[in-house]
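quick one, four chains, predict together pls
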Amino acid sequence: MTSIKDVANHAKVSIATVSRALNGASNVTEATRKRILAAAKELNYHPNAMARSLVEKKSRIFGYIISGLKKGAKHCIVQDTLVGIYEYASSIGYEILMFAVDSNLQRSKSYVDFANEHALAGVIIQGLRTDDQYYREMIDGRIPCVLIDLPADSSRIGSVSIDNAAAAKEATLHLLAHGHRNIAFMTGVDEASVSTERSLGYLAALQQFGLAIKPEYLLHGNFSEDDAYTAVKDFLPASPEVSAVFCASDLMALGVLRAAKELNIKVPQELAVIGFDDILLAAYADPPLTTVHQDFTDLGFEAARMLYNIIKGQDVPHTRTVPHTFIVRKSG
Amino acid sequence: MTSIKDVANHAKVSIATVSRALNGASNVTEATRKRILAAAKELNYHPNAMARSLVEKKSRIFGYIISGLKKGAKHCIVQDTLVGIYEYASSIGYEILMFAVDSNLQRSKSYVDFANEHALAGVIIQGLRTDDQYYREMIDGRIPCVLIDLPADSSRIGSVSIDNAAAAKEATLHLLAHGHRNIAFMTGVDEASVSTERSLGYLAALQQFGLAIKPEYLLHGNFSEDDAYTAVKDFLPASPEVSAVFCASDLMALGVLRAAKELNIKVPQELAVIGFDDILLAAYADPPLTTVHQDFTDLGFEAARMLYNIIKGQDVPHTRTVPHTFIVRKSG
DNA sequence: ATTGGCCATGGAAACGTTTACATGGTACCT
DNA sequence: AGGTACCATGTAAACGTTTCCATGGCCAAT
C-alpha cells in the first residue's frame, strides 16, 4: 500500500505538507497543493483509516447497534433502517459498523466496549429496551448516541421516532369513527417505549369519545405473532362484544388475523383489525392490513443526520419526529 | 480510555508482557499472567482496535459489500444474509463493516479503496455483476474474498451459493411432471450468474423430456417485478398454449401473478407460476407461490466461515454449495 | 538598511499496539 | 564449578497518520 510518505517523496515535500494539502488546510500554496494532489492520484493514495483514527482518537465510523437481529424475521426493519443510515453516512464519508445485541448470542464484549475499541464517532441504537444491561453506561458515556424509538432522557443524546401516541390515537379514532365502541388493544412489551406510547394514544382516543377504559381489553402480545394469536384466541370467543382489535404491531395483527380465520370470524365484517408499522407483509395479508406506516429508511437517515450534527457540535434539537401515515386497507 | 500502559503499570510489568499475556502467548509465567489479567479486568481494559490493526496491517473486520441495497426492497435478502455473516463473525470476534455499491449513489471511493483503507481481513461480496467496474481489481487484489452467488473463477477466492441449475431443473421437472409442456421461463439479467444457471436448469429439464426449446418462451424480467409484469402481459395473450411460467425470482413471479390477475387468468388452474428464492412475500402471495427456498442466513454464515478459513490459510474447498428446498404451495 | 511579522514548509512527537531483539537469571549438564 | 541453553521479561522500533512547534524566506514598515 502506498502511504503518505510515498506521496511526500513523489511530490518532494514533507509528509506534514501532504497531510495538510489533502485535508484542505489553508496554509498550503496552491502550486504545492496541486503537485501533491497529482502525486496522490498518480500513486492511487488513500489514507489509512486506522492510522488516522489512532491519532485523532476518533474514527469516521458510525456504530449501528440493534437488538433483535435474528434469523427468519418477518420484516425488513433492520434492512430498511440500514439503508437510511447508510445513505446519510456515505454522503459524509462515514462507514457503518454493525453490532447486534442478542440474548442468545453471548458476545464476549458489550456494545460499550465495542464502541470504545473502535473509537466510534457515534452510535445509532435501535430496538433496545431501556432496561438493557449496558444501556445506561452507553448513553452516559462519552460517545454520541442517537436512539431510534427510544426516549432521550438526556440532552446529550438524540432521539428519533414517529409520534407513536398520535399515530395510535389516529388509528383508534378511525375505528371509533366507524362505529366501533368495544375496541381491544394488543400491546407489545412494556419495556419498549413505543409500546407504551401507542397504548397512550389508544387510551386518549377512547377518552376523547368519553368511553370507559376496560383493563380486560388490554391484551399482551409481546410484539410476537404467536403470542398475539394465543392471546386473542382465548379472548375473542369470551368477549363477543369486541368488534375491533388495534395491535401495536403488524406482526401481532397477523397473529390476530390467523386466529380470526380459525375462529371463523370474518375480517373486517365481524372484526376490524388494525396494525402498526406497515411492514412488507401488511399489504399482502388477507385481508390487507389497515395500519400506520412508518418509514424506517427515513428514520435511519434522520438518525444519522442528527448524530452527525451532534458530533459536529451543531446546536440542533435532539429530538426529531418523523412523519407517519395512516393507511386504510381492507382489515379495518 | 485505559491503555495497555495503564495495565502494565498496574501489574508492574512492561507493556510487552501485557500484550503477550493478553494474547495468550506461551512464554508468560502463570503468576504474571494472572496478575495482568486481574489488572486488565480491574481497569476495564479493552485493546484499541485501530492501534492493533495498524501494526498488524490487518483489522479484525469483514467487509460486507452489497449491490442493490436500496429503499423499499421487497425482500429481506440483505438482512437475512447479514444475520448469517454476523453470527459467524461474532463467534470469532470479528466485526462487520458495510459497503453498498449503488449506481445512483456516487461514492467518492470504490470498494477496493474501502477495503484497503480499513485493512479489512476479508470481504464478502453479494449481488454484484461480474461486469462491475471494480470487480476484477477486488478479487485480484490481496484481500481475501468470498462471493455469494457469483462464480469463483480463481482458486484464491471463495464462492458460496445453492446449486441454482439443479434447483431450476427440479422446479421445471415439477411442472413437466404435472403435465405442462409449454413452459415459459422468465430470466433475470444475463450478467448475474444465478440467472444463467437457472436458465441452464430449465433447459436441462426440457431436454430430459425431449422437448424442443423455443426461444420465444424466454422472457426477460430483469429481476424486476414491473418488468416481469410488462413482459408477460404482452406474452400471455399472444401465446395461449403456454400453461406455466417459471420465474428466476419470486419478485418476477409476483409480477406475473399480478398480470395474470389483470388478464383474468386463473392461477394455477389456467397458468402455473413458480418462483425462485422464497422471499417472505412468497408464502403470502395470492395464491401462495410454489418456489425454490434458499436460506440466505445459511449462505451468509457459510460465506463468513469460508472467508475465515481462507484467511487462516486452511486448505479447504473454495466452493460451497448450500442446500435448497423446493416448496410446493398453490401457484403451481 | 535593518527589523518585525507573516506564512509556507519541515521536523518530530504522539496515538496504542505488536514483535524482533536484547538481557539476565535459573537450571541442567559435564 | 563453569558453561550453556532456555525462558521470562524488558527495550525499542515500527505501523501511518495528524499536529504542535521550529525554521527560514519574503515583504513591508520604520
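Residues 13-17, 20, 27-29, 32, 51, 53-57 of chain B lie near DNA strand D (CB under 10 Å from a C1').
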